[in-house]
Amino acid sequence: MTPGEEYGILGFATTTRSQTTAERSHLLSLMVRTWAQRAKFTDVLALEALEQVLPQALITAAAAEADCPTRRRRKLPADVTVLLCVAMSLFTHEALEVVLAKMAHGLRLFWPDPDIALANKSAISQARYRLGARPVVALFHRLCQPLATPRTPGAFFCGLRLVALDGTTEDVPDSPANVRVFGRHHSDRGASAFPQAQGVYLSECGTHALLDAGFWPCHTSERVGAFRLLRSVCAGMLLLLDRGFYSFEMIERTLARGAQVLGRVPAGVTLTPRQLLPDGSYWAYIYPADKERRKRGDHLLVRVVVYTLTDPARPGYGETHRLVTTLLDAQEAPALDLICAYHMRWEIELTIDEIDTHQRLVQHPLRSLKPVGVIQELYSLLLAHYAVRAIMAEAATQAGLAPTRLSFAQAVELIRVALDDFHLVAPVHHPRLYARLLRAIAACRLPERAARTNPRVVKRKMSNFKLKRGSPASASQHLDAFASAIHILPQDLPAQQTLDRPQPGELAVGLPWLAPTLI
Q1: Which of 187, 189, 253, 192 lies closest to 226, judged by CA?
Q2: In what helix (H) or strand (E) does residue 261 lie, and over which residues does it extend?
Q3: Co-location of 347 and 435 in the same domain
């Protein structure tokens, strides 16, 4: 074969073009891919279906941070190993050697040597631990950025990007190394079946994109992780908090980052009204847990909304719920709108469900027997999830839909199939394939759903939550609008002599409509 001649099926097609053109009734709309004569298999092995959201340049930069970098191009060089980590998080039910075979399947169909040897199980394991966790973690932090635009439905409130914090635990393989690093839970019933890693996520509510994450031993408090993830909270965000994350320090540090807070309040927290507002909410002070700071008079002025649900078909009917927010202006952020906005916090619960239930098999622990492999695998799962969600966000934007209206499970399946398509087709036609993929994902739509208020019930035994038995509650699709079931509970001011007058600097600027006589 002469220099410059190409491999692949096109080489055969060009020699017979004059004979076959007249006989064909339909021309191929896409050109089959070819490779240069001296191309190496590992140089062209890629996840090109994800190239728009996971560029090869970022992969190469992350691979350079491997624990044991090498100049020799192995069967699994560092950049290909990073791709394998992402691919194994798409094909979570397959063995690693099968995942590698799926990655290479499209290339091998037309490669000059269709029987080219791939790395075996042992080589894959060695390559993963040679890579380490640092490149995958670095790639996660470089890649995962907010996806929503001001036009994304449900992604903003009062011009602030809605983000939420939540924690979860992940079962890891029962090996001595994992038990030593991550630990396992114990109770009166005995030790847990597997060691567990404690994870905390920061998610964009409107797109389900993960913006930051951290993993610790299972006995680490979620609050510790939440404080660490405040590094990714910035001005222009509204942080939605469950009552388990409520604290003076959490709100104080969020404000220091330039963001605002909206969260539930535990039942044991006392919030004395300082001033009633026209929409039924009121101002109150919150104080730090540290006694020395309380003696110094440290406090924050917040706004409190107290409400209940009047629809008997909804979980939480008749119960009193309290929200606290740093958005003090009742005209800019009315109480009813705050209540409806807070229920966007449930989107991070659905994000965790996507990762644990639809992306991987939650009934089984992770693959890795060593802690460094566990961290690598966990961040690979999050990278794959972000890549899928980024493609879904683009598909939703083109279709004029909210990203939460598209099916995550079907999007994962479509992307798995598309990996081979991009290998087989010439790169010049990849934009057409990508546009086709976006249209296919946009067609997989979910029915509209109401704001989530699901009860804390489970089917399995040995849980602190109530058992899920008997007739379930009405499906949320058949309930009345959530806002129509909200009743804001009026509050009374305590005795006048118990009140502290808010300092002028604590009040929001530009609120002339407030009546100071109620202070």
Answers
A1: 253
A2: strand 260-264
A3: yes
